[in-house]
Amino acid sequence: MFVVFFTTFQRRKNQLLLDNIKQQKQFDEELIKTQQEIQEETLKHVGRELHDNVGQMLVLATMQMNAVAKVAKEDIKVKVDNASSALKETLTEVRALSKSLNSDVIFNLGFDATVKNEIERLNKTGLIQTSVTISGEKVDFENKKDDLILFRILQEFSSNTLKYAEAENLDITLNYLEGKLKIEVNDDGNGFDTDSAEKGSGLINMEKRADLINASFNLESKTDKGTKLTIVYPYRTV
User: Fold this and answer.
1) Tell me, what's the pLDDT at 159?
2) Confidence bin at 61 (pLDDT 50/70/90)
3) pLDDT class for 40, splitting at 50, 70, 90?
4) Where are the domains of the chain?
5) More confident residue, 51 or 104
6) Which pLDDT band holds residue 31 (cuts at 50, 70, 90)?
7) Which CATH number among 3.60.15.10, 3.40.50.1010, 3.30.565.10, 3.20.20.370 corresponds to the domain 129-238?
8) Which of 65, 72, 113, 53 is nearest to 89 (CA)?
9) How far apart are CA 52 and CA 67, in angstroms?
């Protein structure tokens, strides 16, 4: 009787522990999803403001500068033309940035097109030379939110590269395989020691986003030898 009682007690205790772990995991996942939704709403709002308000102000400024150029004297015409060109480039940059922030635009464009748009935007800054290579037969993800999550991971990585890595080149590879997408991102920056480096919010956010879509996440880096990110995303049907 004692053995039966003890065995039953242990089973119930283990089951309670498993249930608690499961509930904690579900709570953590819901918390992460809520945080992501809040972030996306904020980014969407900023993207719309850039496109609708700041964009319209730049359009108006460009039109006014063009009007000034028509009546400007020769000695200042070159400066006016340069200012007009700068306004046009700024308008193009603002529109590209608004696309990369607005999730609705990302859903409409699709993953590959959004990545290419981001590559063009980064190259126009003149701060880094960026490229993307796509191989395999393209797959349209059934869960459209996965497009957004994967893109945000890449965006976070490129942002960190610009801020800290002092890199000259950033290369992205999208390899569509049977049942999965393999993403590799490499920069030739100063790198860091992954064993001693403290995890910042950027790295934590990338890992959490990968967990949301059941993707594997691996970050490799060595001091003065750049950083490499590898993500393997299994195509999800729900």
Assistant:
1) 87
2) confident
3) low
4) 1-101, 129-238
5) 104
6) low
7) 3.30.565.10
8) 65
9) 23
How far, CA to CA in Å, does 225 sit from each of 33, 117, 186, 230?
34, 27, 10, 16
Closest C-alpha to 69, from 93, 52, 54, 86 = 86
Instruction: Determine the Cα–Cα distance for residues 226 and 74; give it in Å rounded to an integer.
Output: 50
Q: Name beta bridge partners: 133.
A: 173
Say yes or no to pLDDT of 30 above 80. Answer: no
In tens, the pLDDT along 1-12 reads 656 656 776 777
Q: Is the pTM of this model over 0.70?
A: no
Are 194 and 166 in contact by the 8 Å Cβ rule? The answer is: no
Contacts 24+ apart (CB under 8 A), 196-202: 197/221, 202/156, 202/159, 202/160
